[in-house]
Amino acid sequence: MGMHKVHGILEVPEETDCNGITSVNKTSFLSRSQSEDREK
Prior knowledge:
It contains 2 helices and no strands. The chain has 40 residues and is an all-alpha fold. The longest helix has 26 residues, at 14-39.
C-alpha cells in the first residue's frame, strides 16, 4: 500500500508517471550528451 503513495505522484497512473519521468530523463541525457560532443 505504501508503494502506491511513493510511486503515484498526484494519483497519476503508473504508466503515465513512468513514461513522463523516463521521457524527461532521456531528453536531459540526450541534450547533455550533445553538449559534451560539441565542446569536443
